[in-house]
Write a structure and sequence with these properties.
Elements lengths: L2 H7 L3 E3 L7 H13 L6 E7 L3 H9 L7 E6 L3 H6 L9 E9 L6 H12 L6 E5 L6 H10 L3 E5 L6 H13 L4 E4 L7 H16 L4 H5 L7 H8 L4 H10 E6 L1 H11 L5
Parallel strand pairs: 1-2, 1-8, 2-3, 3-4, 4-5, 5-6, 6-7, 7-8
């Protein structure tokens, strides 16, 4: 594994348990990933706001008491973000928040309200999901202007061109983002690497339709060949935009190991 791949994957993969997963089970699995041979790729544990206390309780029950960085996903827009001010859970450190714009008729106003709520949080990144509705491009500009970040959730049927088009707007706005990948993909690790190559192509000025080919009929040899031309600066340039990939961590790590690229 070369330096560029190590830089690309370093703590890139956020651990997103499936909806309804028992917090104790999610914490136990995350502990196994963090203690595994390829812990270098493991990012934050994503915790629903309703499971924050239970997740902290499960964390402190484990032998290693070192606090974990977590992302808390809130459903209540600005109100949900504001409710996190002053909240804590033993054994967990709030590093990021994810939320979604709720008022589809006033996206930029919603961005302003979330930014105001985020002001009560210290050293916390706030990622905002931008619904694909009229006005979302203007909302991107508003998100960038107030220092928030974007989140893009990929549907179960990964539409490569649609994803490339949305990420192209974010890259053009120089707005960092996280991507949430659907569970159940056949080669999730390969998709993560292809996604990184897509981002690199967009940063290099490729048109979305051209960049989207990197996610269609993804081939391991093609991806390996593409990454072989990267240097550390290329990987760092991609990571400046692509802050995290939320994924089903077990299958994704296993796939990256099979591809020979998961960092230890």
């Amino acid at each position: 594994m070369d330096a560029a791949t190590t830089t690309l994957l370093q703590h890139l993969l956020d651990d997103r348990p499936g909806a309804g997963t028992d917090p104790a089970a999610a914490v136990t699995r995350h502990a196994q990933h963090r203690a595994g041979d390829h812990h270098g790729a493991v990012g934050r544990l994503v915790v629903p706001e309703t499971a924050l206390v239970a997740s902290g309780r499960a964390r402190t029950a484990l032998p290693d008491a070192e606090p974990w960085p977590v992302t808390v996903e809130v459903a209540g827009g600005a109100g949900g973000v504001a409710a996190l001010a002053g909240r804590s859970a033993a054994g967990l450190v709030l590093q990021a928040v994810e939320t979604t714009l709720r008022d589809l008729d006033d996206l930029t106003g919603g961005v302003g309200r979330i930014a105001a709520a985020a002001g009560a949080l210290t050293d916390v990144e706030v990622f905002v999901e931008l619904p694909a509705v009229p006005g979302w491009v203007r909302a991107v500009e508003a998100v960038e202007a107030v220092g928030l970040l974007a989140r893009v959730t990929v549907g179960p049927e990964l539409d490569a061109e649609e994803l490339a088009g949305r990420l192209s707007v974010l890259v053009e706005a120089d707005l960092p983002f996280a991507v949430v990948l659907p569970a159940g993909q056949e080669r999730p690790g390969l998709t993560v690497l292809a996604l990184a190559m897509l981002v690199e192509a967009l940063v290099d000025g490729a048109e979305p339709a051209e960049a989207a080919t990197l996610l269609r009929a993804v081939d391991a040899g093609r991806v390996r060949g593409g990454l072989a031309h990267w240097d550390d600066a290329t990987a760092a340039r991609v990571r400046r935009r692509l802050r995290a990939v939320g994924t089903d961590l077990g299958p994704t790590l296993a796939d990256l190991v099979a591809l020979g690229v998961a960092p230890g």
